[in-house]
Description:
Low-confidence stretches: none
Strand content: 5-15%
Number of helices: 14
Radius of gyration: 50 Å
Strand order of the largest sheet: 1-3-2
Amino acid sequence: MFATLLLTFAGGALLGVLARLAYDRRRSADALKSAEAQAARVLELARREGEARTKEMLLEARAEVLRERQDFDDACARMRDELSDAGRRVQDEERRVVDLRRELDEGARDLEAHRNEIANRSQQLSRKEHELDRLLAEERQRLEKIAHLGQDEARRQLMRSIEHDTRRECAERIKQLEDEAKETSDRRAKQILSLAIQRWAHSHTAETTVSVVHLPSEDMKGRIIGREGRNIRALENATGVDLIIDDTPETVVVSSFNLFRREVARLSLEQLVSDGRIHPSRIEEGVQKVRDEMEAQIVHTGEQACQQAGIYGIHPELVRLVGKLRFRTSYGQNQLIHTLEVAHLAATLAAEVGADVEVAKRGAFLHDIGKALDQDREGTHIQLGVEMMRRYHEHPAVIHCVEAHHNDVPMESIEAFLVQAADAISGGRPGARRESLEAYIKRLQKLEEIAHGFKGVTQAYALQAGREVRIMVAHDLVSDAEAGQLARDVARKVESEMEYPGQIKVQVIRETRAVEYAK
């Protein structure tokens, strides 16, 4: 019984093992099929990705090839253009070489012609020399026969005679040429000056020293004056002008020799009247605001003047100083208008005589720029202008034109002469300057009278329109040390007794002369 159970159990276990084996085989087969299917899908996916990547790489490669081809085509085009330009340059050089060779050939022909002419002249001179030797020999024999002179003495007399005749003929010829040159130069100078003046015919209006502000009502005068005059004092102190309030209805007069201050005061007063709020603090704010606006206007005016004159590349600070000339006068002539006129005249004169137009025009445009500073600093307008131009690196030729236009230094260029001439033309136009001839002469006479009032002065001359007084002193009455003191004394007396713009140079000259007579 037990053996039967054992066999049954063994047979069941065997069947279970066999069944397990069969089941595992089926699972393995199924797993294998699944793995094969998955492997097939992976392979298919890899194949598709590979094909897509291959297509993408082909497209990128084609794009890269197209880019390379485009770059190559562009490089080829550039090279073709460069080769074309080089070809044109070579052709131009060939043409220039041909022209140069032609000019050399013509020069060689001219040189040969000159050489032949010189040879002919040399032959003529040789013949004339032989003829002169023959004539001299005949003259020598004739003189020896007549005067019984020796050969050496006859030669000396003949040479003196020939030298005298030659000197006389040369002097007559030189005088004739000088007269012709003077007549031609005078006529040409008049033509050039007439042309320059006609091409720049500018109207002139003398600047006044007052401005008039109209009021909306007569009551506004009291508000301008303020309590106990505090408003009008505040306005005069802030602007540096004089306000004249008289019986003229609805009118206030602004008086000042300084155009800039007068314009600031006029605009400030107009704004205060328009605003209606007039008190010291408001006056100070209004004046400062107008000053700021005027500074911007000065820069704009300078830029416009540079454009009108055709001057470029000037330092901004010099442009601002040019704009300030709008508010500066000289004997009633507005300096900005004078500057533009001198620049145009100098450029025209330079073009007519063949000088450097740009240097002459630029020097004329800046010749009085120091007058924008001479009311605030010590020194003549020439010294101040030259200092500013050197600080801002103007060309030395332009600086020389400015420095020499009143003969402060010797003139070294034709452009400097032209700037001086243009300045004289502009200032000498009828109506350009307000000062009368009588007042001008009186000022010069006053300078000379002051100089003559000192001991030891023998002669005194007022020069350069009263900008310089030159004093000659007796050497036995004034020593070298006293000459310096005399110059200072004259300068102090001029300062105390006369009114004048700018500076006056006082120059004392002392010399010692030794004279003897041969009897």
